[in-house]
């Protein structure tokens, strides 16, 4: 459930900015049918930053309800205050959530010791499996391999989503952790290369709209069929890049609407709709991937 193609699911909203249950069910059904390994609910792509604390919990619980045991659900539970991250994490105990994805604290830029103590405190507050999430382009803080190695010794810290795009991190982390520690990519464009180096999969933005293709990509990599995997990945490569032509999840929500997966591409401020200049860029990537 922590390997393969895991989707960083968008949170569909209606025109008023309320969570859209019908579109969320449609998305979940799509991922079940497409072979997605698991759903991350309310991560960065799920607009965690603009949902209230209560909404955050409600969306995860709604996702669990609509998934109905058909696909594992991982809760995004990160916060830049340790107490808030613990509160979110504890909300999902005994709910059916299979684990938590917890991002490096953003904005306040803690030291490596601060990062260690933050994640240690969260892990010790729960029995839920914890997956670390390192994305310095978003957080302004980079969790170094040495800190990951220290944290990996805590029993319920089971893996990391590495979103630096720096492939040397894979071997650096592998040297410091046990063989069963899960390393997944948080960068679609370099995910196949990470798997070639021994990584276990990807928590993917692209999978929101190319779920079957990303599941197949991960399956081919697991089989060691990297020649075929690379052919598929080259078809998806423009999509991996152009879904970030504007800040995520602006482009992927627009693309999901174009493919009929969600009813609207509504976002909450300060996120704004896709620009006229970006639409044809994403559209061309969709065509290159064979999705339009």
> How many helix segments?
12
Q: Please outline the major beta sheet.
A: 8 strands, parallel, barrel
- Helix fraction, binned, reads 40-55%
Per DSSP E runs of 2 or more residues, the count of β-strands stands at: 8
Q: State mean pLDDT (0 to 100 scale).
A: 97
Question: Which descriptor suits the 3D outline?
Answer: globular
CATH topology description: TIM Barrel
What is the N-to-C succession of helices and strands? EHEHEHEHEHHEHEHEHHHH
Number of domains: 1
Sheet/helix structural class: alpha/beta
CATH class: Alpha Beta
List the uncertain runs: none
The Cα radius of gyration reads 18 Å
CATH homology-level superfamily: Aldolase class I
| Adjacency order of strands in the biggest sheet | 1-2-3-4-5-6-7-8
Termini separation: 30 Å
Percent of residues in beta strands? Answer: 5-15%
If classified by CATH, what would the architecture be? Alpha-Beta Barrel
Note down, in words, how this protein is organized.
- The protein is of the alpha/beta class.
- The chain has one domain (4-223): Aldolase class I (TIM Barrel).
- 44% of the residues lie in helices and 13% in strands.
- It is built from twelve helices and eight strands.
- The protein has helices at residues 21-34, 53-67, 82-91, 112-124, 136-139, 145-151, 168-174, 188-196, 211-223, 226-242, 250-258, 279-288, and strands at 4-8, 38-41, 73-76, 99-103, 130-134, 157-162, 182-185, 201-204.
- Strands 1-2-3-4-5-6-7-8 form an eight-stranded parallel beta barrel, surrounded by four helices.
- α2 (53-67) links the parallel β2 (38-41) and β3.
- α3 packs parallel to α4.
- It is globular, with a radius of gyration of 18 Å.
- The mean pLDDT is 97.
């Amino acid at each position: 459930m922590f390997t393969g193609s895991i989707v960083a699911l968008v949170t569909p909203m209606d025109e008023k900015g309320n969570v859209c249950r019908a579109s969320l069910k449609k998305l979940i059904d799509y991922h079940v049918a497409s072979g997605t390994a698991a759903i991350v609910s309310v991560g960065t792509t799920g607009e965690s930053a603009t949902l209230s604390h209560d909404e955050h919990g409600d969306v995860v619980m709604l996702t669990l309800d609509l998934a109905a045991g058909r696909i594992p659900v991982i809760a995004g539970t990160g916060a830049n205050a340790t107490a808030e991250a613990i509160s979110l994490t504890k909300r999902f105990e005994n709910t059916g959530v299979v684990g938590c994805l917890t991002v490096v604290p953003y904005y306040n830029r803690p030291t490596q010791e601060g990062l260690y103590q933050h994640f240690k405190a969260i892990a010790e507050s729960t029995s839920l499996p914890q997956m670390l999430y390192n994305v310095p382009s978003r957080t302004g803080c980079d969790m170094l391999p040495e800190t990951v190695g220290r944290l990996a010794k805590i029993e319920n810290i089971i893996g990391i989503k590495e979103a630096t795009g720096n492939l040397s991190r894979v071997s650096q982390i592998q040297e410091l952790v046990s063989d069963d520690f899960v390393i997944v990519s948080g960068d679609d464009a370099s995910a196949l290369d990470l798997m070639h180096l021994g990584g276990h999969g990807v928590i993917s933005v692209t999978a929101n709209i190319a779920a079957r293709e990303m599941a197949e990509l991960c399956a081919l990599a697991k089989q060691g069929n990297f020649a075929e995997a690379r052919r598929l990945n080259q078809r998806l490569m423009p999509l991996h890049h152009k879904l970030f032509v504007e800040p995520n999840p602006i482009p992927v929500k627009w693309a999901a609407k174009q493919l009929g997966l969600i009813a609207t591409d509504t976002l909450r401020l300060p996120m704004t709709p896709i620009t006229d200049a970006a639409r044809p860029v994403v559209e061309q990537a969709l065509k290159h991937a064979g999705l339009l």
